[in-house]
């Protein structure tokens, strides 16, 4: 059995690859029967999977160790070359949507493939290749800059991820100093962070206008493959969050201030939830994985098979370490049919959230790995986040394995933080709309816009003694804003869907789990609202959905004596 470290990478000769692909594309275009076209599609898919496998191996290995010269050079190579591959694949999409066998192919592969092809065509033109290359380089520059942080604290050197536990310390001064140190890294590199983002906004605006769009907002929605909803619907959703959730979250923060014994909650208090200390996993990373194994063995036959697949092949890199990129993600290595989970364990409850959240993504990809079309292995982003966030709730019955006497604390914190995330999530989204509608804004104007959004969505927030965050720069910590524009409202839409699974799993666990399993198997074969319907969930855009979901959660939170936790 091959393990991840044995998965083979060799840099491809792209000129040869392009010739090969054009031959495959000619075979597709000149096919005179539906059967021949299907065979040609299968060969094209195998070609794309092979190159995507190589790209993903580089991406994972370069993010695990940003000091690895070989994989950093290979990452630079792919940053440069992937837009050229996008050009090839767009040629395929153009042929696909005009095939005379479209009706028959839609019956076999589903209409979603053709909708995705249409959007990919709209998002690309050969004349923007050099701009896409520049965009790739800038996003890599951002992630390397964040990964380069080596912060001196309490006589030791830490990465930003490793500072995390100190922001939850019982000692208020320690929390404050840890947040100040983290903010200090961004302040010291303020010019770089401002410059990278300024260049990204301008290059994205230029790409959008060259492709015939008014601004990058329109192109951003096309790139995110938002096939069955639009910016107006998102705006209605943000309004629901503003009206129903912001007041509730403000109340939750008031309860938190009382619970931890402070007169007024500061930004450096937000991560500290209980006077007796936050819930933390009661063992090492290896111990967490062992308990994760037990949890997934017991959850279902399918999760048991999946988790052993991941363990047997070393498909997880979980601990925070120097030179490792920040954050967590799941990707899929096609030729090995392997999901891969990347994380930064740091001894907080986030470690267990990662094990459930990223494993939700990985379990979905594993469930749909044989679906036959690269486009369908993962769904679009907002749908993919339903799998991850819902898995966090389906695993609640096993949380005692990890948190022992802190289990009630964890559940309260998990549900409350899911709610309090929503206003921040929609603020990030609205911020990006404003930025890309005003591409000529200066860095200072962007920060002012963020400050105004905080007044609307995060009215409780107080950055006392953290001048850089106070200046409206806290969004610079959010990698999505730099690396995947408009990928953030997705979490909030998915959170509303996951809350519905939480509610339903308490009423009829078996039915809720079967709907979830079915959703995972569908992969990306339907657009967002089609998948929501298939899972028997209510659309987050529907008037009243947010209110009904939140009411249930508020009741549950009110039923807990949080002051006693």
Automatic annotation (TrEMBL):
Pfam families xref list: Peptidase_M3
Protein name: M3 family oligoendopeptidase
Statement: the UniProt record of this protein carries the keyword GTP-binding: no
Keywords in alphabetical order: Hydrolase, Metal-binding, Metalloprotease, Protease, Zinc
Domain Peptidase M3A/M3B catalytic: residue ranges: 167-547
Family statement drawn from the similarity comment of this UniProt entry: Belongs to the peptidase M3 family.
GO annotation, biological process: peptide metabolic process; proteolysis
Names of required cofactors: Zn(2+)
An example molecular function term from Gene Ontology annotations: metalloendopeptidase activity
Signal peptide feature range: none
UniProt keyword annotation of Zinc present: yes
Cofactor note: Binds 1 zinc ion.
InterPro entries: Pept_M3A_M3B (IPR045090), Pept_M3A_M3B_dom (IPR001567), Pept_M3B_oligopep-rel (IPR011976)
